[in-house]
Specification:
This protein is 78% helix and 0% strand. It has five helices and no strands. Helix 3 packs antiparallel against helix 4 and helix 4 packs antiparallel against helix 5. It comes from Pantoea alhagi.
């Protein structure tokens, strides 16, 4: 068994996701130490948006469906981090804690509610007439 398979079994995440986590962590720590956290956060949110748009486009093309599924995994994994970074960036502009709390609730609970409400109903089984 290869080492990256062992890591995936132990952590439940592929090595690529773990390395992306580490790169994001290093970028945020670097931005914090260099007092460039807003710029680093903006770049990370823009990168997330670009990956999200690429995921939406590639899922519609049958030949690129596997790429779209891979990008969907990445966007699902990093949604919470991108939401927190976006909330941080908005907090630099908006100074009302109640509005920030409402925005945070919408950003975190919104996708769950949409996925619950957008589920397709189970297919109806038609009875055969005798």
């Amino acid at each position: 068994m290869k080492w990256f398979n062992r890591i995936q079994i132990a952590t439940g995440q592929p090595c690529l996701h773990i390395s992306l986590h580490l790169v994001m962590l290093v970028a945020l720590v670097w931005g914090w130490r260099e007092r460039a956290l807003v710029e680093v956060s903006s770049v990370l949110v823009a990168a997330y948006a670009a990956v999200f748009i690429a995921m939406l486009l590639t899922q519609r093309i049958p030949r690129l469906r596997r790429t779209g599924d891979f990008l969907e995994e990445i966007t699902t994994t990093y949604y919470f981090g991108a939401a927190m970074l976006l909330l941080f960036l908005v907090s630099r502009i908006l100074h009302n804690n109640l509005l920030l709390a409402c925005l945070g609730l919408v950003m975190l609970a919104g996708p769950a509610l949409v996925s619950l409400l957008a589920k397709e109903p189970p297919p109806r089984i038609e009875k055969k007439r005798s």
